[in-house]
Design goal:
Blueprint (H helix, E strand, L loop, with lengths): L1 H21 L1 E8 L4 E5 L5 H50 L9 H13 L4 H20 L26 H22 L8 H11 L3 H5 L6 E2 L4 E4 L19 E4 L2 H12 L12 H12 L5 H5 L5 H12 L7 H13 L4 H8 L4 H8 L4 H25 L13
Antiparallel strand pairs: 1-2, 3-4, 4-5
């Protein structure tokens, strides 16, 4: 509201200034034979008028931006409030209109089962349960309840998703498509400092199994060319680097192949001197540094510091002719290859940076095509043995009727 009042005052001053400046009559200059008067412009007032107009436009722009951001926040809050109200109404229908102090663990289980019986997916039921837990926790914080009755209630189990593993042919096509996409982008922009080295990024991901955020936040200090390793380490807030944290674990060291080491060394020589990050383009790094100075950078934005990452990778997938895939599937493929080539599950857990063994077992124990074929052959042999055993146990049927006489 204050911005509106200020903007109106400034606009009023601008109108008055324009009126006085553009409609001032100079009586010493008259054209007698036409009977017209010459309207003169006092140029000394023109800069001040322009400045006032600029301030007016700036205030109006700030007002519109704040209204837009505030409207989005209000919509998000209203949506969350509406979903919490719907969850609580459903909970009341299940438990009945009872006092919140009488709520125990069992009504929560009945509520989750009711959601599933009504056709809600486990994800939707889990979302409703989170709203209820938050409401009861607010009651605890306000002293209305001694403890949250649903705090120990577990989320409904979600069906295990199928792990997408790229085949060897798809990996080759993906690497080739990454190089083609990079060449197309370079031909358009003709500036290598603003482009991601997609081919190197994909190759390194296939070799190391690093996550997207781990790759994008890797610095040259993390790369040991002599030992042929790369460290996945958290980053502190420094003048050169922004704050970044690793998911699940603190740090780990991953091996690199000779081919990847050579490509990284070549890429390092092409970077500006003293440039810290491996895969962040220098132009983007300069932009991020400006945002940090302005206080517009956050830890959350540092998780994926590149713009249009997903859009560009989808373009690469389209060139490669690969469907139903995402960048994280490269990590799936790498870890599955480790398992298929002899690494133990605990070793994969350590190298992948999983906090629990269940994560490794649940998501990354995907079977490969050769294992499926071997299993099919083993099942076929087993069925053949079962058939032979059944034939041996069957009574001999003779065509001579005397054999069947008692």
């Amino acid at each position: 509201m204050t911005n509106v009042i200020v903007a109106l005052c400034v606009s009023l001053l601008c109108i008055i200034g324009l009126y006085q400046s553009f409609f001032t009559i100079d009586k010493t200059h008259e054209v007698v034979h036409q009977g017209d008067k010459i309207w003169t412009l006092p140029f000394l007032l023109l800069p001040y008028t322009a400045l006032a107009l600029a301030i007016l436009l700036l205030l109006l722009l700030l007002f519109v931006v704040r209204m837009f951001r505030g409207d989005r926040l209000i919509k998000r809050f209203r949506k969350t409030l509406y979903q919490a109200r719907i969850a609580m109404k459903h909970f009341i229908r299940v438990t009945g209109d009872v006092s919140c102090g009488c709520i125990k663990y069992q009504p929560g289980e009945a509520f989750v089962q009711s959601c599933l019986d009504q056709g809600n997916t486990p994800a939707t039921a889990a979302k409703k349960l989170r709203h209820l837990k938050r409401l009861f926790q607010l009651a605890v914080e306000r002293g209305q309840l001694e403890e949250n009755p649903l705090r120990l209630l577990k989320q409904p189990r979600r069906p295990r998703r199928k792990v997408r593993v790229l085949s060897e042919d798809e990996c080759s096509r993906l690497i080739k498509a990454a190089g083609e996409f990079q060449n197309l982008q370079f031909a358009k922009k003709r500036r290598s400092l603003v482009l991601i080295d997609w081919e190197l990024l994909v190759r390194t991901a296939l070799c190391s199994g690093m996550r997207r955020g781990e790759l994008l936040n890797a610095t040259w200090k993390d790369v040991d060319f002599e030992k042929r390793t790369i460290d996945v380490a958290p980053k502190k807030e420094t003048p050169e680097t922004w704050e970044w944290h690793i998911k699940d674990t603190e740090r780990r060291t991953l091996p690199l192949t000779d081919e990847i080491v050579k490509l990284l060394a070549k890429h390092h020589t092409e970077q500006p001197e003293g440039y810290p990050y491996v895969f962040i383009p220098p132009a983007r790094y300069i932009s991020i540094q400006q945002l940090r100075k302005q206080g517009k950078w956050s830890v959350q934005r540092g998780c994926v510091p590149l713009n249009n990452f997903e859009r560009q990778f989808k373009s690469i997938l389209k060139i490669a002719g690969i469907v139903d895939a995402e960048f994280h599937d490269i990590r799936h493929t790498c870890l599955t290859n480790w398992l298929a080539n002899g690494l133990q599950e605990l070793d994969v857990m350590s190298m992948a940076g999983h906090a629990s063994f269940e994560t490794t077992r649940q998501f990354y124990l995907a079977v490969r095509g050769d294992l499926i074929e071997r299993t099919r052959e083993a099942s076929g042999k087993a069925m053949e043995e079962i058939s032979v055993a059944n034939l041996l146990q069957m009574p001999f049927n003779s065509s001579d009727p005397k054999d069947h006489q008692p």
